[in-house]
Design goal:
Oligomer: single chain
Distance between the termini: 37 Å
Radius of gyration: 20 Å
Helix content: over 70%
Order of helices and strands: HHHH
Structural class: mainly alpha
Shape: extended
Strand content: under 5%
Number of helices: 4
């Protein structure tokens, strides 16, 4: 991807792909879509964690209040970790890349070996 970006934009290429886009309406829509996408996915990704933590507590508590409390604490802890660790985005990119390789290459091979 980096090679194609360099070939497309030349030596004036910037570190983020969205910074290289021209200043048109379609580019702004692409940039804002890239911004809104992870924010919109956050609740979807945190819901299984909240449900797993919620099952650890007894049912005598109000489940809605408990769910909101757990979700708020997870959000605050995520923000604190992101602010405390410099280059958190690079760390998450590395973890995502390693897990993607594991899920797409190694895991199917292990499943095949387990089946056969």
């Amino acid at each position: 991807m980096a090679i194609f970006g360099y070939l497309m934009f030349g030596p004036q290429i910037q570190s983020q792909v969205t910074l290289n886009l021209p200043a048109s309406i379609s580019s702004k829509v692409a940039i804002y879509t890239t911004l809104v996408n992870p924010i919109a996915k956050y609740a979807l990704m945190v819901t299984p964690i909240v449900n797993a933590i919620k099952t650890r507590f007894s049912c005598r508590y109000n489940l809605r209040f408990l769910s909101i409390l757990i979700g708020t604490n997870l959000l605050i802890s995520t923000v604190l970790v992101a602010l405390a660790i410099p280059f958190f985005g690079s760390l998450m990119s590395l973890v995502g890349a390693l897990l993607s390789i594991t899920a797409s290459i190694i895991l199917p091979c292990l499943c095949y070996l387990k089946i056969s």
